[in-house]
């Protein structure tokens, strides 16, 4: 198969496609012929050498999600058959024409969704749902705050909150505020250095129940000041800095929870449990059109370096998809 | 009744006893004739003017726990009758001969326990159990770490961990290490500036499942480095400083939870729920002698200022009790 194999780390130019060996399915695995993958911030970090695949797989093929068609199944596989339309998350290996994966991590693609668009679903909807609902405890009637509202996770978070009867505030750049309102945010706040904390406090003096933060850095104390008593902050990234001066007194006064999370490093049983629960609780809403992948752009596989440049320009709204097969 | 009424804030000398009006029970309340109260770090902060009673009650009577005898009951009270031996936590008002409190916050004193010793139970056992078990999720087979092992919360935490089949490591000063081992700690670590983190790592390379921290400050990053993947840190105090430089990347890598908590600021329904659950899960272990209050010393009411000086000297092992009535 053809795949992006990292022989060195650096700028987008290190992303070159070459011929490598096909994966074979283990007894509980399926092989998926990949239609499309999609970009994540972690891919950029991995490309630069800062965030290796935790499995230490050689050769190093990046790519953390896929959509495609099952092309082979292991001897014990019961959930899938050859030809099934599927999608899912991986710790790596999806910048490729094929991937082998445990059958219980795999998600069905609802018939209403085109396979190429389905690549825009797994990482951001699993991340946003796990952070807001599973770990954050977001329910009907409550308010969430999501930073980087126009990002993939932000656009997924807005849809999920609305779908379960919750409300959502988002921060984003001035240029993206209109798009966030159109995508369903109940309250759109201009991001820092604008004083979003003051604007949020004006609307919600008692704070919000759940905060999903991918930014970190100086936003952390603003999160602690903006969370409601007994609320939950879920830290999904630290794009603005991982080490920061924190007012721990606020965490205590609010009797709040602050949870660090990543999907990538989790063991198989946790990923499988999350996939099965997502199948039960979220996939039906894609089937009925309540939830929709938000695709910013689709690049052909050969232009994957260009796709990375687009992500680094921070101009996207929703997911950057890379189509690998027609 | 006689009570300590704070007319000003400052050193132990502001703790003077005077005559003030008796409390009357509301319809769901009982009045307790207090046998003894016990000191908490928060009392020292309140005395200095840094931690007022969140209810803003006037006159300001400190004291956050009591043991005693029910002397009057409100019209709707069903759980208690006059003469019952009881104990409990309050947001304030226990440096006094009487206190009125909602019946569902009140705990029975097991017959095996002397009333004066029972005053050493409520705050530290509720705090340690809530932090380690209810919020931290400590179970049989798992390891906890508790800082300030010889403190009231530390000595309660050791007993609770042992009683539920868990193991516990504690940090304490070199002078208190022997006492902590005798009180049941499974691993005793000399506290900072000694490198306890290295010693703990040698014994538990994968970290501990739950950390109860009353210290904060520089211990916070050591906690994050010492917590196991998917573990929980419960922040019960920040004696060494509330604001500190935190490596949030560790929180994410560990996929850990960091929970801020206080008992004092909680609303009635949460305090009542905790008291009822504690009655079901912990009181039977006092009745059988598995759990025991650890009393450092008992001061007469008239020497309450001296009791405060003793707490500030940090030489106590277990609780400092103040006896109000024979």
Task: Describe the model.
The structure is a homodimer of 326-residue chains. Chain A is 29% helix and 26% strand. Chain A is an alpha/beta fold and 326 residues long. Chain A folds into two domains: 2-121 and 282-323, Medium-chain alcohol dehydrogenases, catalytic domain (Quinone Oxidoreductase, Chain A, domain 1, Alpha-Beta Complex); 124-260, Rossmann fold (3-Layer(aba) Sandwich). In chain A, strand 8, helix 4 (152-163) and strand 9 form a beta-alpha-beta unit. In chain A, helix 3 (122-135) packs across helix 4 (152-163). The first copy, chain A, is globular and about 55 Å long. The model of chain A has no long low-confidence stretch (mean pLDDT 96). The interface between A and B is medium-sized, with 29 and 29 residues.
Record the SSE blueprint.
The structure is a homodimer of 326-residue chains.
Chain A: E1 2-4, E2 17-19, E3 29-38, H1 41-47, E4 65-73, E5 85-89, E6 98-102, E7 107-108, H2 115-118, H3 122-135, E8 143-146, H4 152-163, E9 167-172, H5 177-182, E10 187-190, H6 196-203, E11 208-213, H7 219-226, E12 227-235, E13 243-247, H8 248-253, E14 257-260, H9 268-281, H10 283-287, E15 295-300, H11 304-312, E16 319-323
Parallel strand pairs in A: 8-9, 8-11, 9-10, 11-12, 12-14, 15-16
Antiparallel strand pairs in A: 1-2, 3-4, 3-6, 3-16, 4-5, 5-7
Helix pairs in contact in A: 3-4
Helix tally of chain A equals 11
N-to-C SSE string of chain A, H for helix and E for strand: EEEHEEEEHHEHEHEHEHEEHEHHEHE
- Kindly give the count of domains of chain A: 2
Say how many strands of chain A there are: 16
- Oligomeric category: homodimer
Kindly report the CATH topology of the largest domain in chain A. Quinone Oxidoreductase, Chain A, domain 1
**Biggest chain contact:** A-B, 29 and 29 residues
Query: What would CATH call the architecture of the largest domain in chain A?
Result: Alpha-Beta Complex
Give the distance, in angstroms, between the N- and C-terminal Cα atoms of chain A.
15 Å
CATH superfamily of the largest domain in chain A: Medium-chain alcohol dehydrogenases, catalytic domain
Mean pLDDT, all residues of chain A? 96
Outline of chain A: globular
CATH top level class name of the largest domain in chain A: Alpha Beta
Helix content of chain A: 25-40%
Low-confidence stretches of chain A: none
């Amino acid at each position: 198969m053809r795949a992006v194999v990292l022989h060195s780390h650096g700028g987008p130019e290190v992303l070159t496609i070459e011929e490598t060996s096909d994966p074979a399915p283990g007894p509980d695995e399926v092989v998926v012929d990949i239609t499309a993958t999609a970009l994540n911030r972690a891919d950029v970090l991995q490309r630069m050498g800062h965030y290796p695949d935790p499995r230490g797989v050689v050769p190093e093929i990046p790519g953390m999600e896929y959509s495609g068609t099952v092309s082979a199944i292991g001897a014990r596989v019961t959930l899938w058959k050859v030809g099934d339309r599927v999608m899912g998350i991986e710790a790596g290996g999806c910048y490729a024409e094929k991937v082998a994966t445990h059958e219980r991590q795999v998600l069905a693609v609802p018939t209403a969704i085109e396979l190429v668009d389905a690549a825009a679903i797994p990482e951001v909807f699993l991340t946003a749902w796990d952070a807001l609902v599973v770990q954050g405890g977001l329910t009907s009637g409550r308010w969430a705050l999501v930073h980087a509202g126009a990002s993939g996770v932000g656009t997924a978070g807005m849809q999920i909150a609305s779908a379960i009867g919750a409300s959502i505030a988002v921060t984003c750049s001035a240029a993206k505020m209109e798009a966030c309102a159109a995508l369903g945010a109940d309250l759109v706040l201009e991001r820092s250095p604008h004083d979003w904390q003051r604007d949020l406090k004006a609307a919600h003096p008692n704070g919000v129940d759940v905060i999903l933060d991918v930014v970190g850095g100086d936003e952390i104390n603003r999160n602690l000041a903006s969370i409601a008593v007994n609320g939950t902050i879920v830290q999904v990234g630290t794009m603005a800095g991982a080490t920061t001066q924190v007012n721990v007194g606020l965490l205590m006064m609010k009797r709040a929870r602050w949870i660090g999370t990543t999907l990538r490093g989790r063991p198989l049983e946790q990923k499988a449990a999350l996939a099965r629960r997502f199948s039960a609780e979220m996939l039906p809403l894609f089937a009925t059109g309540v939830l929709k992948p938000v695709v910013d752009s689709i690049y052909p596989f050969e232009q994957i370096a260009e796709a990375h440049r687009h992500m680094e320009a921070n101009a996207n709204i929703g997911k950057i998809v890379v189509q690998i097969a027609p």
